[in-house]
Amino acid sequence: MAFEGLSSRLQEITRKIRGKARITESDLKEMLREVKLALLEADVNYKIVKEFIATIQEKALGQDVMKSLTPGQQVVKIVKDELVNLLGEKESKVNFTPNPPTIVMLVGLQGSGKTTTAGKLANLFRKQGKKPLLVACDIYRPAAIKQLQVVGAQLNIPVYSNENSKDVVQISKQAINVAMSKLNDVIILDTAGRLHIDEALMDELKNVKNGVHPHEILLVVDSMTGQDAVNVSEKFNEALGVDGVILTKLDGDTRGGAALSVKKVTGKPIKFAATGEKLSDIEVFHPERMAQRILGMGDILSVIEKAEESFDLEQAEKLEKQLKKKELDLDDYLVQIRQMKKMGSFSSLLKLIPGMSKFKDLKVDDKEFSKVEAMICSMTKKEKQNPKILNASRRQRIAKGSGTTVQDINKFMKSFEMTQKMMKQMQSSKGKGGLKKLMNGIDENALKNMKF
Asked: What angle do CA 254, 260, 265 make, to 5 degrees?
């Protein structure tokens, strides 16, 4: 996961200092030394690290402590604020023109994930009410056009291509005419890349820029390339004047140094982050939320947004009414599992919840979801409504029908009973602090051993 190494180091450092009622200059010096090492190990640019540490030191030594916070908490707040500043301070949106179509030009090196990102971006724009058109402008890479067509077919989004033309500017202009005739209000140009930056590549991209005047030039950067990602960003920006950056493969880089360096070095905002292989795995980049994730403070707003996007509201309301009247049964549980699966990896969702970062070894195998679905679907209606009747012979039958073992059934039923208890706790917790009481009552070892 993105920032995993950096996140665990910084969380450990801030945990030590957070509760201190008094911080000496020596304490601060030791903390900043550890922060510096953590950032350098995360592959953050050395000059940026040096400036970052100096800023924190100056603010921590010179700032009056707020009455509501301990000195330790104040230092943690300073670290968080500076991380936000480093990542870009605030969300940077795509500038859609009032006179459509808006032309978005994707540029970057070969292998950075431009074609897949083009599809992800089109999918995201469609969810925002836009009608996108994908344009195949990579006429060199074998099967590049076919790849974009496959992505478009998966999303049911139109793709314009002209395999008879070798003039990328002409293809782009033709695509604009097609978009206007088909009422597509966003055009995404998937341009060619190279394995390295060369004059031929830059000249072609400059020609496209001058030929169609895109409203947004977004640089697609592979975050796993570390400092090279920053160097690439700098060169593309110098040549083209990019409007923003899309970081890809953030789920595969445990360091995250590129994300912490690219904004400061180029002066251009990170606009989107691709966080997985699915065509839905892209999100608007929120600097403050990302800083909170890195420091283990959670990101509950992203959880809510994912839920709003994925959940069937009518079904959720119906389930809520049912739960108020009766105990959670396995039919209800199956509905919840299927809704949760739409939101993405359960392990990644847990990390977004404030307070869950303290469970360091907590890992949930998402394949367990499929096993649980198979188990529940192998039960009779009576068994789903009243799991207490599941005796040994019934469990053997369910195991055979679902391709699992009796031990799997036993483990699942134990975790289901725990879930029932948690649901009762949530219903009985009234007024403020209900969720906090619930979290305090969760046993860490029980969570680690929990199978979903």
From this structure: 140
